[in-house]
Amino acid sequence: MASAETVVLVGSYAEHPRALREIANRCQHHFRILLYPIGQPDTTPWSQQWDELQQDYPTAEPDSAGSVYAIIDACLSPTAHRVHELRQLHAHYPTAWWLRSGLTETATACASALGYPDVVAFNGLPGIFARLHTVEIAPALTASAQAREAAIAFFSQLGFQPEVVEDRIGLVIPRILAMLINEGAFTVMERAAEPTDIDTALRLAMNYPHGILEWADDIGLDTIVAILDALYAEYHQERYRACVLLRQYVRAHRLGRHTGHSFYSYG
Length: 267
Prior knowledge:
Number of strands: 7
Number of domains: 2
CATH class of the largest domain: Alpha Beta
Shape: globular
Largest sheet: 7 strands, mixed
Helix content: 40-55%
Radius of gyration: 18 Å
Strand content: 5-15%
Structural class: alpha/beta
CATH topology of the largest domain: Rossmann fold
Number of helices: 10
Strand order of the largest sheet: 2-1-3-4-5-6-7
Order of helices and strands: EHEHEHEHEEHEHHHHH
């Protein structure tokens, strides 16, 4: 893998671009980075954040020439909702490996919608992606051995220790964290405890490095709700039903540390 290779980062103007920023920061010393935003920029509530990101990294033009090593789709919305744009991107760079954030969609579902078998999902959890030493990857059921090995090589070059897991929504760590955070949100909504009490109890009793609601504020409540909604849609089990308090915070754009407010307030 040559250091001059290019990666294309796919994002949505409807979503905060922090996940793209964290992935770009991890990639920038090894790859040339192009952005491929989908949607209408004049309707995004995150115009300042998108403007700052696009000042740092150029946008991939549909008629631009050159090879691309990998396409990295960090969106929370399903592939099927953006399939026209994504198929155009794949047609333009047909030899690029396709890496899909597995927070809200399996690699197999992405491959089915895209019409391309070699998709590998990864743990693109914002807020903690930059601090991870290990990254979970999950090849689609249709993926070739070459796609799996390419994903392992890619994340290894970024300094991760890749771990192959089953292709399930949320993978392993994001799924567990989302469920713990959801239970913490129900506890706050029911006035059984304050956020600081919950986080202190879990740090002391369970030896967690952070409280679960501190984790929620780092990750972003929009991401947590999206994971839970995707799990509920897949399994139809009550344990994945997102707490109303989480939804209310998302509606108010109280998403976490990066917006200044959520379970805690930040200066």
